[in-house]
């Protein structure tokens, strides 16, 4: 009997231990896991926050890296897999979302970078013609896999084909962590500051 109680207690402790490692961060009601796997590598949640425009909650976003970094330069210098995960907090048309994304990229690129990435920017813009819009609670994930490039998925379905250059993936990240971020309150949160 004593051995059975000990076994039950051990099993309960192991179950609690498993639960304690499966954390999620909650941002404006959206859950973002504290880890992710991209290209077979374990990534950690570097930071998370919400995009607020005027008084409207637009989306929650988490940035995942192979190791935690606190500066834009260090994040962009990482060559391994990366992920951003967006959970929408309101409905948006694909035109609204696509326009904001492309404007954010353009605000953070120098003229020569725009020339270098013109084909990828065009292909990226085309992704937003593949869906009519997003609903509250839907998810877009942008992964960088060194073997493949950048892939974007909406609710698990890949949009378009991979975009190969890590520089272009970093151009996307600069929407939020670049010199001219979409949201000045969000940038420090993605760099690891606590809300």
From TrEMBL:
One of its GO terms (molecular function) is intramolecular lyase activity. It comes from the Bacteria. InterPro entries: Chalcone_isomerase, Chalcone_isomerase_3-sand, Chalcone_isomerase_sf. Residues 1-24 form the signal peptide. Keywords: Isomerase, Signal. Residues 24-192 form the Chalcone isomerase domain. Pfam families: Chalcone_3. This is Chalcone isomerase-like protein. It comes from Aquabacterium commune.
